[in-house]
Amino acid sequence: MDCSGEHREFRRMMDDFAELMTRSREGGFAELPGARLLFSRRFASHMADEAEYFRVLVASPAGSRLLPAFREYEDRVRLLRADYSAHVRKWTPQEIDQHWPDYVSAVLVLQDRFRGLMDWEEEKLVLGGGMERRAGQAGRVAV
Questions:
Q1: Consecutive H or E run containing 56
Q2: Tens place of pLDDT for every residue, the chain, 143 residues?
Q3: Which residues of 76-96 are buried (b: 16+ CB within 10 A; e: fewer)?
Q4: What is the torsional sign of CA 76, 48, 118, 99?
Q5: Closest C-alpha to 28, from 17, 42, 12, 40
Q6: Cα distance between residue 7 and residue 130, in whole Å
Q7: Could you tell me the CA-to-CA distances from 118 to 8, 10, 103, 109, 130 in Å, in that order?
Q8: Phi/psi class of residue 123: alpha, beta or left (left: φ > 0; alpha: ψ in -120 to 50)?
Q9: What whole-number distance in Å separates Cα of residue 133 and Cα of residue 4?
Q10: What's the CA gap between 51 and 70, in Å, rounded?
Q11: How far is it, in rounded angstroms, from Cα 69 to Cα 123?
Q12: Which 8-state DSSP code applies to residue 130?
């Protein structure tokens, strides 16, 4: 699984959302709910696919060597998902409208955390000597 293409798409979506937030006070506010929903659905789908993929790798014969990285992945994802869920619950359309600067700041913080998670995944798990390559070198992973 090469997540880099999906990660590029998420980075583009976050850049687009950040740009939308700069326009929103000038008439783009109606676009925010749809953009939030689209991102949320893609995020949930991606995380489920990724988690399943990594579970398959860990279950492979080479999996015991991959377990520490996978556990760290699970911890990082769990924290991000919990914070993202809390963010979505807190930031209702009314809250966004009443506390716009705080909402923008909160979005940018979550975006930075997600970017950091993707960077970590690409370095440690998927690309450039990460989990996938180590498992593949063992020659026993069928995913």
A1: helix 32-59
A2: 567 788 999 999 999 999 888 887 665 577 888 888 999 999 999 988 888 888 888 888 878 888 888 899 999 999 999 999 999 999 998 898 889 899 999 999 999 999 999 999 888 876 444 444 444 544 433 33
A3: bbeebeeebeeeeeebeeeeb
A4: negative
A5: 17
A6: 16
A7: 9, 9, 23, 14, 13
A8: alpha
A9: 14
A10: 9
A11: 11
A12: S
Where are the strands (E) in the chain, listed by range?
none
Is the separation of the CB atoms in 47 and 77 below 8 Å? yes
- Cα(3)–Cα(110) distance, rounded to whole angstroms? 20
pTM: 0.80
Residues in the chain: 143
